[in-house]
# Entry
Amino acid sequence: MHNFKNTIPDKLDPRVMTVALFVGIVEFELFTMSKGVVKTAGSDAWICVVLGGVIAIFLAYLLVKLAARFPNENFFQYNRRVWGKYIAFVIAIAYLIYWFTYLVLLWEDVNEANKLFFLRETPSIVPLAFFGIAAALSALYGLTALIRFFQISFPFIIIPLTIIFALSIAKIEITSFLPILSNGITPVLKGSFNIVGALQGLELILFLGPFLNDVTRSVKPVLLSIGVLLTTVMFQLTAAVGLLGVESVNLSIYPGVDSITVIELPGFPVQRFELFLTFPWIFGVFTTICLMVYLSSYGIMQIFNLKRKRLVCFLVSALTIAASYLFPNTAVEQEVRNSFIYATLLFVYAIPILTLVAATIRSKRG
Amino acid sequence: MLKFFRRNKERHAQQPSNKSEQISCNNEEMESIRFVEVSPRDSQQSLRGSKKRFSESARYNLSIMSKRVSTENLVCEQFKLGSVSTKTIYILYLKNIANQGIVSEVKDRIAAIKAPNILDSSFIERNIEDSNLSPFPQIEVTQKPDVVESALMQGRVAVIVDGSPDVLLAPTTFFDLMDTPDDAYSRWFFAASFFRIARYIMFLLAASLPGFYIALTSFNPEMIPTKLMLQILASREETPFPIYFEIFLMMGIIEAIRMMMIRIPSQVGYTIAIISGLSLIGVGVVSNVIGPAAVIIPTLTMVASFGIPSYDLRAAVRIIQFFTMIMSSLLGIFGYATAFFFIAIHIAALKSFGIPYMSPLAPTEASGLEHTVLRGNTSQMPQDETYNPKKMS
# Structure
């Protein structure tokens, strides 16, 4: 391969935030999330999405404000100036552990779903290894290439999801959502935090800033992204509750997938609509894995001042795959996954917002 | 020319000798001899628009371009390359539109070429493109002056090599390679857009249909409608080979027939290709060596591949379809998706002279989508931001 150095600047337009965040956040949880929210809030789960959406939009706005304050630096870089060298180092290490854990959970999800739907007899390491190589390569090319990959993937996620919802809408039972607020407001509030805590990957806002040509213009794209994302969650949730009912959702392992099996369209060339769900699922989980491998690898290189990009990217990929085999069974993984919401609330919202407050008080600006 | 041979003949007649004699091959007389132009196979036929083609004479090509683009902003720069046999290379661009960064990038890369001779423009192409390992061509090749004119108006740079009728256009995106002049010349934008979308669907089919079929039938047959699946199973009852083997076999046969059609003189070649193709498939299906579906899928793939206008891109897709087939044979739908990811990651990272290969889709540039992915309803030729042009004055 030639080694030409291009002179054309490779900055991204802030509008990429809409697709970048959507594709970076959507993963397998989209099809399981309804179970957790329905367990907490029952038929009022849809209110959780609305309320959670409002909270998430407000918090994301604060994240954009923080990124815009330091337009040429990423979160780890300006943390040193805001918190001081040592605290910033501890925060960075904590983030790396958070991303590592999330990656391990994602690999385990891929593994489980793979065994259930696609490759029942193939040794699980084989598909994971292929995925791992692809994810490491994507991280290796850098964030701008990764975002362009997200843009290519976007239609393959959004179009099948929209088709599925359009097909299921006629069969949704409105009575499944009644009566409203039968258990009071507390479960709804609890469920809202489940929704907010499920937005792992939103921290991309804090790292994408230096790659954008004007980070201050990214408020609208970020808000739009969360809007589209929560609309998709709402589609999934209403389809699950409206087609299966609250009790069946609670019993189901993958309510998002089960709700699709109910759809029947006589005369339509496709009989089983799970195929439509296959692509958003695989694309969603893979893109999120790519993002997490990128954040972890470049985070490690930045903190420890390492130069061997290729080695670090492949090592992160390989180690997290290996760690996913430490889960004894799916139940344990699900337990960890449910608790992970609290970690997300801390790392995606609490620490960055505290950083914004500290930066404002100490008048730190990029 | 006759005069030249007559003079040589006379000279030899005057001094009969068995020894060889050196004569100069590089004189004006030799250079002024006009060669008979071989009428080429037209790889870029268009229903409307100019029917003119470039020739092997760079001067002729330059004169066509100066007639088509009659503006003082048209810049032509000349390079002399080749340490053993020198060849002249020209670059053309519009100085009021082309991005200076791109122009100097093209110039630098051409100037850096160290070669004893330049046989054809393809040698320039492989030396200046960003990645010669990539299956995707990063430079567009055309023999049509109107395509070059349109490219210059978009801020691109044309490279003309003396002795080659193929003019290179840089930078190039994926969408340039999927574009045909007929899209721009069509009267009704809606039909043009429809055919463009059809071409993209054909591209996807050509790259992935055999792989997708292998993945579904071998690993996840439950996703196929029951009636169709039963039909496929019934047709395969007597066949001895697994599905993936049948598809690989048929794809191989199709490639062999395609190569035969290129190599054998046209009329005989077409007849032999049709007869051999029909007899192979007919006997194969009747004798139950292959199933009917294994004929339908590769044939559909081949037909779809001809929807891709660029020869180089078509060649890339042929290799990619084998990659998707191998991955699908190993890992089913999961492998099919992984193959897609490898390709998508590669094209997302690929650039042509600093311009992302998938522009204006990734990065998304709304102004460009109108005449790349679709054909807008515009009264004049639109200019997008893909090549970072200076604003047209």
User: Anything to note?
Assistant: Chain B is about 50% helix and 10% strand.
